[in-house]
Write a structure and sequence with these properties.
Blueprint lengths: L2 H11 L16 H7 L5 H14 L10 H12 L5 H24 L16 H6 L15 H9 L3 H20 L6 H43 L1
Length: 225
């Protein structure tokens, strides 16, 4: 079997994820996903590991230091030759840089002029438009003003939900140009990571709600007695 045929079979065997935030579980386990990824060439497997290591939401907590995230992304970009995958990594790093700027501003800090705080095309633009809620980037990142409000209200859960949603949508747009190639495989794995993260949050939220309702019910019984 040729490598091209192997990738066609691989992509064809991967179930489509359900709508983001509606899925109760990923479409297949990570163990099964890794088993199917064994058909990748050594070079493509290395590329996938680089991209996933830089952007995997399981390894990037929402409160991770922006410097660590940027450094990890730069290391990955230095070893990724694929233009589409480079763009995916760069886009995610630019999003993280925007959020890092929102956090700095919410803490009362001014524009970090001359400091290596961000990544990408918009660093200087953000510094020049620091006082605007969306850094005058509404045409590029229309969700920034919403993110600004969530940060100011310390709603970390809603903020991460928003960021995951934006990352997923960007992957969806890129996915339309790729079908049976390494780009399609990497995009699928990144989308799997996002769905896996959201389903874990859904389970945690459901458990907390059940516990709260249980405590409420028990409290009423205690009052009766």
């Amino acid at each position: 079997m040729s490598q091209a045929d192997a990738y066609v079979m691989l992509i064809s065997s991967l179930p489509n994820p359900e709508s983001l935030f509606r899925a109760k579980r990923p479409p297949l386990s990570r163990l099964k996903l890794d088993q199917r990824l064994r058909v990748l060439t050594a070079e493509d497997a290395r590329t996938l590991k680089l991209v996933e290591g830089a952007l995997d939401w399981r390894r990037l907590p929402i409160d991770a230091a922006e410097g660590d995230i940027i450094a990890r992304g730069r290391r990955a970009l230095a070893h990724i030759d694929n233009p589409t995958l480079q763009r995916i990594v760069r886009d995610r790093l630019e999003i993280r840089s925007c959020v890092a700027a929102l956090r700095r501003r919410a803490r009362g800090e001014g524009p970090p002029l001359g400091k290596p705080w961000g990544f990408g095309r918009w660093v200087g633009h953000i510094e020049r438009n620091w006082s605007d809620a969306g850094f005058r980037l509404d045409g590029v990142f229309p969700w920034l003003r919403e993110a600004d409000g969530l940060i100011r209200h310390s709603d970390a859960a809603a903020l991460e939900r928003l960021l995951l949603q934006q990352a997923y949508r960007r992957l969806q747009r890129v996915a339309g140009s790729h079908t049976f190639d390494i780009e399609a495989v990497v995009i699928y794995v990144l989308k799997w990571n996002i769905v896996n993260r959201t389903t874990r949050y859904n389970r945690v939220a459901a458990t907390r709600r059940f516990e709260a309702l249980s405590r409420s019910g028990l409290g009423k019984q205690v009052d009766l007695f």
